[in-house]
Amino acid sequence: MKRHFALGMFLCCCFAFPSQGSVFDEARHKMVEEILGDTSATQSPLSPAVIAAMEKVERHRFVPADFAARAYDNRPLPIGYGQTISQPFVVALMTDLMRVKAGDRVLEIGTGSGYQAAVLAEIAGSVYSIEIITPLGKEARERLVSLGYRNINTRVGDGYYGWPEAAPFDAIIVTAAASHVPPPLIRQLKPGGRIVIPLGAQFMTQYLMLVEKQLGGSVTTREILPVRFVPLTGGH
Ligand code: SAM
């Protein structure tokens, strides 16, 4: 009798008060559904690997505690130091455009919160990510280590110059708007590889660009869609 009562209480607690985890899981799933709706209007369907990564990575762990309740809104959020975690739709689209495969080595410029790096790490073999703002870079590194990501390497520095010791990369993503594609990044990209980068000035229209390095070494660029990113800073 006592055992039934105890079991009854347990079930009642489980159903009456869903854990915070399940609330976030549900919100994340809704966010992915929304992204799928948005991307179907702009391009070919997202790859199953990108969808799985977006379903898996817990964005609420990458935003300041004050914003956790809004972590699964499909919008950018502040992460301090005047920077933002990108809109989930943009993260999914950029990841998809990179065409990352299992085992690939990828480079990210602009670690920020570490969220995009985590999404990439779900698909790629190894991720190298550079952040120019020291405290953001340190926080992201600690967060990624505490979340158990072993295939992400981070460093603080100016990403304009890439990460030559780890090159060549299968794909490169730049998550801040530049005036041009940094030549060191083109040099550090494998033939057949892709760079996804927003180009344009801060308060002007910026375009997300897909840069492809052909097997012979020539480079083609294609405009994808208008976007708004914080600027790529640094001394270049
Ligand atoms: N990918 C991030 C995430 O998932 O949270 C969001 C990145 S935020 C839109 C752009 C980031 O690029 C900022 O953290 C900014 O400090 C960084 N950044 C700007 N210029 C940079 C540079 N030259 N090298 C490395 N990081 C840079």
Description:
- The chain has one domain: Vaccinia Virus protein VP39 (Rossmann fold), CATH 3.40.50.
- The protein contains seven helices and nine strands; from the N terminus they run αααββαβαβαββαβββ.
- It has a seven-stranded mixed beta sheet with strand order 5-4-3-6-7-8-9. Strands 1-2 form a two-stranded antiparallel ribbon.
- α7 links the parallel β6 and β7.
- 39% of the residues are buried.
Q: Tell me the name of the CATH homologous superfamily.
A: Vaccinia Virus protein VP39
Structural class: alpha/beta
The helix fraction, in percent, is 25-40%
The low-confidence runs, each spanning 5 or more residues with pLDDT under 50, are 1-18
Number of helices: 7
The kinds of small molecule bound in this structure are: S-adenosylmethionine
Gap between N and C termini: 75 Å
Domain tally: 1
Strand count: 9
User: How can the largest sheet be summarized?
Assistant: 7 strands, mixed
Beta-strand content estimate: 15-25%
Overall form: globular
CATH architecture identity? 3-Layer(aba) Sandwich
